[in-house]
Design brief:
Blueprint lengths: L1 E7 L2 E4 L2 E4 L2 H4 L4 H19 L10 E9 L7 H18 L11 E6 L3 E2 L5 E8 L2
Length: 130
């Protein structure tokens, strides 16, 4: 069993400014903004995937952890659901995963949130099963 770890930002910078990657914003973005945010996010993940360019994942499990800036209550699924979507799309786009369906991603776990004032982020762990 192989374990891969990735770091994703809570926001990305695009021409129109800083955009927080969150379901509340996602559902209200103009399609052009959403496309720019997704591209920027995938570029960040693709840089981390480069060291696995020859890896093809058969089946896997995902674990996502939100590292938030403060103790203020956050609905972690609002953050992590979009990260899961964009991350899985990046795996497929980079030919690491054939498809992001239930046949390949067996489960996704949203772990307990952690406060990290200096480095808010989302950590994504991929547990490769085959």
């Amino acid at each position: 069993m192989k374990v891969l770890k990735f770091i994703a930002p809570l926001y990305v910078e695009i021409k129109s400014g800083k955009k927080t990657i969150n379901l509340n914003y996602y559902r209200n973005w103009h399609y052009r903004i959403e496309s720019q945010v997704k591209k920027e996010y995938q570029d960040i993940i693709t840089q981390q995937l480069f060291k696995y360019k020859n890896l093809m994942i058969g089946k896997c499990k995902l674990q996502l952890t939100l590292f938030k800036k403060s103790k203020v209550q956050k609905d972690k699924s609002n953050f992590l659901s979009i990260h899961e979507k964009y991350f899985c799309d990046a795996l497929v786009e980079n030919n690491i995963l054939l498809d992001d369906s239930d046949d390949y991603i067996l489960s996704t776990q949203y772990c307990e949130s952690i406060v990290d004032k200096n480095n808010p982020r989302v950590e994504i762990v991929v547990i490769v099963l085959g």
